[in-house]
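Justification of resources, computational component.

The compute hours requested in this renewal are based largely on the per-chain cost of generating structure records like the one below. Each record pairs the submitted sequence with a full structure-token output. That output is archived, and it is also reused by downstream analysis tasks.
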Amino acid sequence: MAQHREVRQQPLNSEQVVQPATWRCGRFLFEPRKRPLVMGILNTTPDSFSDGGLFQSAKAALAHAEQMIESGVDIIDIGGESTRPGAEPISLQEELDRVMPVIESLVNCGVALSIDTYKAETMKAALAAGVDCVNDIWGLRQAGAAQVVSNHPECGLVLMHMQRDPQTMQFDPHYEDVIAQVSTFLMERANVLIHQGVSADRIALDPGFGFGKSLEHNLTMLSQFERFTQLGFPVLAGISRKSMLGKLTGRESDGRLAASIAAVIMAADRGARIVRVHDVADTIDALKIWEAVL
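The structure output for this chain reads:
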């Protein structure tokens, strides 16, 4: 099992905490288990890199959410603004108009809900409506974001690493040591929040595949993913349909199912606690086989 692997390098931050036995996520308390939690992606956007426009209407979004729930999804991650490379930001009101009707319809669906946003006001509205988790590509660095989640002491948090911003992140990304630098950033963000009173058992980390990383950087992070799991927090792997898989297979985003599942299994084998995916049913089937073999 991945958690019994020999550690190749000591953790990179002396202020780390021991990984909590559970991950607190709003109304849900996720206990450790062999199979990673599956976070299903629900983009209510017209321009996301893989499924833009497919679930833009509330009716289509809810139908897709129902399919994910029937397939056994653990968390539904609802996003109203594309963060693909080069994406332009949208207004607060436009984001709220896209996500709030979906959140309000799903809040009692029986699985955890996550809001994929970096805007403090969107976080505030979503949490007030009953969302269980905030998934922030900026790692709660935008104005007011950390204060909002501090005011909701039960919600889960996913802190992601991104070099620069969505408009410029893929302009020649550079690292001296991608594992060390991403790990240091994630630990710094976690420690800032803990020092502000956020409970450590609410925090999960995301190294940010494809967010300011080259193909080589992404492959290094996947091959050494277990090093992120040594930082003391649950770690999320978000690799589904990413361009790194397209570069390796030559396939467009809607043809990357096999590659996505292969990457998820490799991340799970290296200790991923959460996997964020488009193809929930197929991913869960693959993880069931992986878990049975373990």
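The longest strand covers residues 37-43. Residues 21-293 form a domain with the TIM Barrel fold (CATH 3.20.20.20).
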